[in-house]
Each structure stands twice: as structure tokens, then as C-alpha cells.
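Hi Y.,

Following your request, here is the sequence exactly as I used it, all 430 residues.
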Amino acid sequence: MDARAIIATLRKGGTPDAAALAWFAEGLADGSVSDAQAGAFAMGVCLNGLGDTGRAALTAAMRDSGKVLRWDLDAPVLDKHSTGGVGDCVSLILAPALAACGVYVPMISGRGLGHTGGTLDKLESIPGFRTTLTEDQFRQVVSKVGCAIVSASADIAPADKRLYAIRDVTATVESLDLITASILSKKLAAGLEGLVLDVKCGSGAFMKSQDDARALARALVDTANATGCPTSALITDMSQPLAPSLGNALEVIDVMRVLTGAASGRLLDLTVALGGALLEQSGIGDGTKKIAQAIASGAAAEKFAAMVYAMGGPVHFVEDWVRFLPEAPVIREVTATTSGTVTTIDGEALGLTVVALGGGRQVETDVVNPSVGLSDVVSIGDRVTKGQPLVRIHAARESQADEAELAVRAAITLGDGTASPPKLVLEHIT
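Below is the corresponding structure, written out as C-alpha cells. Let me know if you'd prefer a different format.
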């Protein structure tokens, strides 16, 4: 095999065969493919595409470029992946809820980058919680508790890690084929027997239109199924934050309120919809009812408590979570200057406000402040009166709260009349 020949095939509009793509992925992983060749490959795929067969072959090759886990358990091994949004802390509820339904969830997750929060950052706002485990530790927690949410080790899809860094500096991030291969190679390396995808669209998502979200969902579902993992997707609304809060510890508070029965709303509704779809596609009947019961009965909260303790967190976290989570020194209400109905919310702007407060990253090396963010965010369709809070800002300093207040006011639009809350689940792709 020759990297130049593979790149030339792409340049001419052809698709390298599965063997060539496997060779290239191995070269990305072991360094025998140069950065220049990786960049040319990414540009060739970005410009001319791979087609369905090539996309599946690249995904499998990147999955197989490192460690692929195998499980010998007495129930299905399932997982969920979201394409990212603001206030999206579903994973923290869904993983233990699925475990409470008797399946296993080895969830490999990521950190926040850009305007969206990261699952690992949220969990690490819990004192002592360790998201980096050895493979043996990961297996032990999954086997004993039923779920574990961890960071990817260096030997999980190393070809993707290399290519992702190249894409970031060569303006080739926005390629359907490369996005699909990147997402799925890491997920499928976990040895899954079923996967549900939450593909978001709207102001707080990377995909702003439903058409773009549908194209990505279709590519992800078809590719995952072609590589042997039964998969479906929900296209969901992200025209406003999913949870009432944005920010790591604040979102954990929302999670605990759902798990302990103190709150419901969109966060609970989407968790039940995703979990139900995953269980039902895996042959476990009435999955929606099972997930809802697991949460309502407290069984999911018990699994969450067991996972937190097994991964280094406090033994009594679920019983006394308020005491353990950090609180920002500055808390400010942003109140409405006029009466009206909430008509639009710029979710991306709110997410970037949290980043500016220190609750997210602009580059991977940034240190996150787990206590800052926004809470009690109004929803589209809410009727507010002058002086009523639109959001609460949690900041480290007054000057940061000043800047955040200006951004929040610009991101939330009030109008006359009424506005209907957007539908949460827009499509189901199988």
C-alpha cells in the first residue's frame, strides 16, 4: 500500500477499497502516515466523499486501529451518544436508568469544547469522581454496577485521535463522512450490541437545521448498522437548553432533581424517549415504561450512587448531594425589563456565555471552573412579567457576571402574544 496512491484515488473522485482504508487508519495510528498525508486525505474525503460503503469501511478501520473491547456478560451491552447541545446532561440519568433495567452500559464520553458542555466535566464536579480508569477497573465497575462513564484511553481508536487533530487545523471538520467515522469509531470500540443516537438541531446544536441533522442521523445509523451494531437515532430539538441549567455542577443538580423525583420536564422526557427506543430496538419490550419506572422508583438513583462511589466519589452523594457540589461566590438574577412571552433563545450564545464564565473550554488545555454557569433559564413559550427572573448567573467575579448579563439579555427574546413550546422529538431514524 502507498499513502500517495490512496490520496490520488480520492483526488480523482474515487473511493479507496476497505483494505486501503484499513492500511491508512493503521498508518494514522502508528505514525507511518505523515501529517501532510493525513491532511490531504481529509481534504480529499471532505471534497469528494466516500459513499456509504467507503464511510462504513473507514469507520471500521478507525475502530480497529486500537483496542476493541469484548464483553462476556449476561445481558445486552448498550449505549447512547449525543451530537451535543446546551444543558444536555441526559447521559448522567440514562446510563444508571438503563443499568436499573438490567442491561450494561460501558459509556465512553468526552469533555466540553466550544459552546457545548462535556459529560466528563459534569461528573468531575463531584468530589473525588475519577473518569480515567484502567481497562480492568472499567470492566469491574460495569460488571458490578451495570454502568460506568469514562474517558477514552489512548488505545481506543487512536487513528481517530490523530485524524481529528489534523481536521481541526485543515478546515476539514465539516465532512459528513469524517464526522460519522469519528463518532462511531470510538463508540463501537466499546464493544456495543446496541446504540441509540441523539442528533440535535437548533440554535444550541452544531447542526442548526433539521435537514442537516437528518443527513447526519441517516449516515450514522446506516454506517453503524453496516458495521454490525444495531442502531437507531432520534432527531431532537435544541432551540433552547435541554435542562434548566448550563454549567457542570449546576447540571448535576438538575440530574439529581430528576433522579430523586423533584423535577421532570424536557430532560426527563428525552431520557425516557432515548432509553425506550434503545431497549425496544434491543428486543426488550415496553422500553419507555421500563425507563420511566426505573427513574420514578428510585432504582436509577441507586445505580447512580453506586457508580459515583465505585469511581471515587462520596458514598452518600445521592442522599446529600447539595453539600458536595461547589457553589459560585456570585449569584445574580437577570430580570425581564418588560413583560412578554419568550419567543426565541440563542442556545449557542448561552453556551458561549458559560465558557466565558470559566465553565467550558476554548482550547483543550483550559481549566474548567465547575461551579459557574446559568440556572433557572426560562423556556420558549413562558409568559414573564417585568421584574421576573429570566435566568440566574453563577460567576466567580462580579465583572464576569456583568459581561454574562449583557450576553444573556441579548440571547433571550421576548415578544407580544403567545409562542408554542417546540416539539422535543422531531423524528425517529431507523
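Residues 3-63 form a domain with the Transferase, Pyrimidine Nucleoside Phosphorylase; Chain A, domain 3 fold (CATH 1.20.970.10).

Thanks again,
Q.
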